[in-house]
């Protein structure tokens, strides 16, 4: 059975790149060797694989990749550090303008 991997690379500039692949070894090689010179990671090498999660369903993998790509740096670092329990608190909006922080005058 084919597996699909959602992965996060930490780039030399400390940014994160999130992707999905059906062959993680090939994909890491492509990133490290700038096979696509216009790729986000091409000018940000060296790269370090800091996270990967495997899926049997390609649609679940793609859905998770899209979700992670939209996350804040802190949320990405939570899963990188295997702190999945921190995701919910990190999702709470703490802006002063948030409805939960609104105080009637």
UniProtKB/TrEMBL annotation:
Q: Which residues form the GIY-YIG domain?
A: 2-78
Keywords in UniProt for this one? Endonuclease, Hydrolase, Nuclease
The cross-references to Pfam families, in alphabetical order and at most eight, read:
GIY-YIG
- InterPro entries noted in UniProt: GIY-YIG_endonuc (IPR000305), GIY-YIG_endonuc_sf (IPR035901), UPF0213_domain (IPR050190)
Fetch the Gene3D superfamilies from UniProt.
Answer: GIY-YIG endonuclease (3.40.1440.10)
- A molecular function GO annotation: endonuclease activity
Please name the SUPFAM superfamilies in this protein's record.
GIY-YIG endonuclease
Q: Which family does it belong to?
A: Belongs to the UPF0213 family.
Which PANTHER family does its entry note?
UPF0213 PROTEIN YHBQ
Q: What is this protein called?
A: Putative endonuclease
- Provide the species name: Pedobacter soli
Q: What is the lineage of its organism?
A: Bacteria, Pseudomonadati, Bacteroidota, Sphingobacteriia, Sphingobacteriales
């Amino acid at each position: 059975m084919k597996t699909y991997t959602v992965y996060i690379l930490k780039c030399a500039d400390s940014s994160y790149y999130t992707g999905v692949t059906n062959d993680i070894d090939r994909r890491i090689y492509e990133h490290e060797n700038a096979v696509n010179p216009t790729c986000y990671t091409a000018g940000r090498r060296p790269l370090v694989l800091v996270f990967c999660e495997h899926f049997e369903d390609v649609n679940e993998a793609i859905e998770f990749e899209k979700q992670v790509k939209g996350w804040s740096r802190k949320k990405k670092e939570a899963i990188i550090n295997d702190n999945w329990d921190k995701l919910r608190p990190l999702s709470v909006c703490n802006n002063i303008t948030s409805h939960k922080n609104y105080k009637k005058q």
